[in-house]
Amino acid sequence: MSYEVLGITVLWVFLFGYLIVASIDFGAGFFSFYSSITGKRHLIHNIIERYLSPVWEVTNVFLVFFFVGIVGFFPDTAYYYGTALLVPGSIAIILLAIRGAYYAFNSYGTRSKTIYMFLYGASGLLIPASLSTVLTISEGGYIEVDSGGKVTFLFSKLFTSTYSWTVVLLAIVSVLYISAMFLAYYADRAKDRNAFEVVRKYALVWSGPTILSSLLVFFAIRNHNPEHFEQMLNLAWMFVASFICFLIAVYLVWSKKRLGLSFLFVMLQFGFAFFGLVPDICLMFCIRI
Amino acid sequence: MLLSGYDPVLYSRILTSVTLGFHIIFATIGVGVPLMIALAEWIGIKRDDPHYLLLARRWARGFVITVAVGVVTGTAIGLQLSLLWPSFMRVAGQSIALPLFMETFAFFFEAIFLGIYLYTWDRFKNRMVHFWLLVPVVIGSSASAFFITVVNAFMNAPAGVTVQDGKIVDIAPFAAMLSPAMPTKVTHVLITAYLTCAFVLAAISAWSLLKGRNHVYYKKALKLTMVSAFVFILASALIGDLSGKYLAKYQPEKLAAIEWHFETTTQAPLVFGGILTEDNEIKFGLKIPFALSILAHGNPNAEVIGLNDIPADEHPPLWIHYLFDTKMAFVVMMTIIATAFMLFLWRKRAAAYTSKWLLRAIIVAAPLAMLTIEHGWIFAEVGRQPWILRGIMRTSEGATVSNHVDSMLILFTLLYIVLGITAVRVLTRMFRSNSAEDEMADRLILGGEDK
Predict the structure, then answer these.
(1) Cβ pair B94:A72 closer than 8 A
(2) Inter-chain CB proximity A82 and B89 less than 8 Å
(3) Domain that holds residue A74
(4) Which alpha helices (DSSP H) does B47-85 contain, by range?
């Protein structure tokens, strides 16, 4: 196994780990806030608290592992990303800081405050949106290197591109879907029927938009980077597999059966799709400039 | 570019120092407080004393809030390394990836056990089981400090790498962790973190005692923290001495700049205080004969390298002398305060907890300790200039060339102000609304009068 393949495998594991754990975490934060303004907080508060309390610090760790991994295995890639991503990266850090800190202030402090809950619920949805720009940029076309080697990030291009907005949409919707699917499993394990009914509804509501926004991303990639789209078509079976996993997962939640298995299929669904999106050996780390 | 005269290197340095200057407060608390909690809980179990157990419980409760701020600012500096210093990370990334990875892993370990520890008070029949859950937290937090200081040691004295045309080739990852700067730096950081936390927690007890809340709970807390502070200050004095000897051998330019030592000489005197005129003459300084030679080599006749033997473009800024001497003045004050408490405890025990002046001094010692950490860190970093990676890469070559560092500086400064204010408010509300006396009444803990 070459150094690069080893590196990519390690980074892949960290990023996928982060994708799942952070999605659950961010979504749970949002549902916690949403349920409190819709008056359902008393129903799902317990399971969300029980899940959130131990994991929020661990979620950050996955992200840092991923970045340290890039630096260690692909210092040149880290250089381009570092230079290009100062602004979106800093915004993501600030959101992560607000989220982590206000979660702790809210749950370990004396009393819970709606403003704290709003801050951590809302930042949780904005973080995936800002982090998803990393994926968008890896498709190429948003970084310019001039003859002197100066790296510039083309903001306006990113903000006006359909592709980048479809990715943002997919990121937010997926977060809510993954999180609701997990909480459904978790509530079922905890034998909390009332909470289960609420989060099951969330899961089913967000399943449709997840598939729709995935389709949107497909079409957007075809327009943005036809070459990559061709490569993805060669791996069409992975997307078919992903879709089948999605159907099984949603069916299991809908019929209220085998919810652990259902969440396993959610992870497979995103595993197939994510791996299919970045098919060649250099994955997202050889930036297409 | 928001501000005129924009220079990405300057703003990258300012933003990095703002982030670290804020993070270091919470990082220090994060490293030292678990040890103090462990001490209190251990004594509480061994002596079957509910006061110490309550102390551990209350410290742990406040600790979680500071950990949260430490985690998010730690994540910020971790990512800012790549965002603000991409060229540095390109050159050094592979050599420091291992300790960075270990640091994150140590934190991971700590976070998991901290979560379990917080939720398992009174869950075990054998109370030592709960204590043992804290041990990984103490180890994990100190290990985090260990590994991140290893990275800093590498920047000060790169080891385990071969340099060819300004590029690092041939990296031996473990040898890179064993930089000659590592042993003194790591121990200094750890011990002073313990020391600072002992003083911070002592100040809280002293505050309550000064307010006339004379429950024995506060006296036990003050005794535990101040005796610890005394032990740690002795240890840090010893390590501080070894750090001086390390500098003389491996980073003579830093030592020369700190001490305004311009000419290489034997029997070098130490200059304390003073000001530097335009043509590098020292005025009003206190000269202690032979002291620099002793500090550097443990021998009054030893030769100490002066700035005249260092190329002019590699001189560190000379103002670090002021930082260093201020820091040493703080250290002297803390030593006096800790020693005074020990003398009181030994000679007139009652007065140790009632003397208004002593209690006030202990309250002052906490910010002094934190300022010492900040001063020490700033002079260690500025003293490495002009290098970001000593002898390999200059700071000016390591920074980003982005046009937006100044706007990011404003955003992050606002973030830290907001986080700092909220953290303080949450902490004060937490302890005001649930005083130790109320909690003792709730938990049916007896014994309020002085024994």
Answers:
(1) yes
(2) yes
(3) 3-281
(4) 50-84
Using pLDDT thresholds of 50, 70 and 90, give the confidence band for residue B129. confident
Residue A171 is which amino acid?
A
B208: three-class secondary structure by DSSP: helix
At B274-294, the pLDDT tens digits run: 777 777 777 777 788 887 888
DSSP β-bridge partners for residue A152 = A144
Residues A176 and A24 sit within 8 Å (Cβ to Cβ): no
Give every CB contact of residue B358 below 8 A, 6+ residues apart in sequence: B337, B340, B341, B344, B351, B352
User: Is the residue at A258 inside a domain?
Assistant: yes
> Between A and B, how many CB-CB pairs are < 8 A?
163
Query: Greatest CA separation found in chain B?
Result: 72
Residue B435 per-residue DSSP state: -
Does A288 fall in a domain? no
Rounded to 10°, the helix B50-84/B8-46 angle is 160
What was the pLDDT predicted at A163? 82
Residue A20 is assigned to a structural domain of this protein: yes
pLDDT value of position B2: 60
The domain total for chain A is 1
**Residue A287 lies inside a defined structural domain of this protein:** no
Q: Is the dihedral of CA B189, B190, B196, B199 positive or negative?
A: negative
Which residues of B are less than 8 Å from A151 in CB distance? Answer: 401
CATH number of the domain to which A11 belongs: 1.20.1630
Q: Which chain B residues have a beta carbon less than 8 Å from that of A75? A: 89-91, 93-94
